[in-house]
């Protein structure tokens, strides 16, 4: 008589190399889950020639659950442990304690679970084997789930205020932008005029210095024209507050990029900028970038 448990026992002994799978179920104990949900224990057997199945203790058609659970054989002990609500041996303990506690979008409940997770995460500061990696991923998945739930609630609570704010902005922002655009255009024109005055003052100052130097070289008495009057530090109108006039030095253009780089090469901001540009280039597929070292790393999505 054929051993009805043979397929399951072989699969359990070597779960990474399960034998041929057909549409006909096989006796045994397995686990399955719905998308992103918890793992559920499954038992499959025959009674009076009919296939029977339990998923999480509830009857289900065997052919319906078989294709989803056949790749995940488990021991009898694991089945009984999960069926009694004690989770799985490879569960993260923090996640296992949360199973069955649907927090919905309650802020305090979500905050409490995240606080518990922050303590549980300390167990994974250094991951040393596949079991730890799996547990850490369970905790990560739960935290992403809670973050998503909290974010949806935040968006829902914020939406009415955003809509009200958008309605207000729709009425008022065009008026504000028009006024600011006119004010900015006037500021630019005043600045252009004040810059011309500044350049003229600098020209007169330079001319005065040249005349003084020429007189000194000729041994003549230095009789230079009086210095130009200083530029007024205020632009006053008959309405509103006056505008302050200052002088700032600005970069008009870069005339020697290499010299500028050598001067700035040790600035952390420049190093960070170059690093970011190099990362973007590597991410886009470039492999010919000089001056960098690349390495392969695992990326979790």
In short:
With 301 residues, the chain is α+β, with helices and mostly antiparallel strands. It contains eight helices and six strands; from the N terminus they run H-E-E-E-E-H-H-H-H-H-E-E-H-H. The longest helix has 88 residues, at 130-217.
Properties at a glance:
two-stranded antiparallel ribbon; 301 residues; single chain; 8% strand; elongated; 6 strands; alpha+beta
Task: Describe it.
- By secondary structure, the protein is an alpha+beta fold.
- Among the domains are: 78 residues, no CATH class; 69 residues; 33 residues.
- It has a four-stranded antiparallel sheet with strand order 1-2-3-4, sandwiched between helices.
- Helix 5 packs across helix 6.
- The radius of gyration is 38 Å and the shape is elongated.
- The model has no long low-confidence stretch (mean pLDDT 89).
């Amino acid at each position: 008589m054929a051993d009805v448990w043979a397929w399951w026992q072989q699969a359990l002994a070597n779960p990474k190399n399960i034998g041929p799978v057909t549409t006909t179920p096989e006796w045994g104990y397995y686990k399955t889950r719905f998308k992103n949900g918890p793992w559920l224990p499954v038992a499959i057997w025959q009674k009076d020639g009919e296939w029977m199945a339990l998923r999480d203790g509830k009857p289900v058609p065997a052919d319906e659950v078989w294709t989803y659970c056949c790749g995940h054989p488990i021991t009898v002990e694991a089945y009984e442990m999960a069926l009694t609500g004690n989770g799985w041996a490879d569960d993260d303990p923090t996640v296992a304690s949360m199973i069955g506690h649907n927090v919905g979008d309650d802020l305090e409940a979500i905050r409490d679970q995240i606080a518990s997770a922050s303590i549980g995460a300390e167990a994974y500061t250094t991951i040393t084997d596949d079991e730890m990696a799996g547990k850490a991923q369970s905790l990560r998945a739960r935290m992403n789930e809670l973050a998503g739930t909290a974010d949806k609630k935040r968006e829902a609570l914020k939406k009415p205020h955003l809509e009200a704010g958008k309605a207000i902005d729709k009425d008022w922002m065009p008026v504000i932008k028009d006024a600011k655009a006119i004010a900015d255009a006037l500021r630019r024109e005043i600045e252009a005029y004040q810059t011309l005055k500044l350049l003229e003052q600098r020209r007169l100052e330079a001319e005065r210095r040249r005349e003084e130097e020429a007189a000194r070289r000729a041994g003549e008495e230095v009789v230079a024209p009086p210095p130009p009057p200083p530029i007024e530090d205020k632009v006053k109108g008959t309405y509103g507050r006056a505008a302050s006039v200052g002088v700032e030095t600005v970069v008009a253009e870069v005339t020697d990029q290499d010299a500028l780089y050598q001067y700035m090469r040790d600035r952390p901001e420049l190093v960070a900028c170059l690093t970011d540009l190099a990362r973007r280039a590597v991410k886009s597929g470039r492999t010919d970038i000089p001056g960098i070292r690349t390495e392969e790393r695992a990326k979790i999505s």
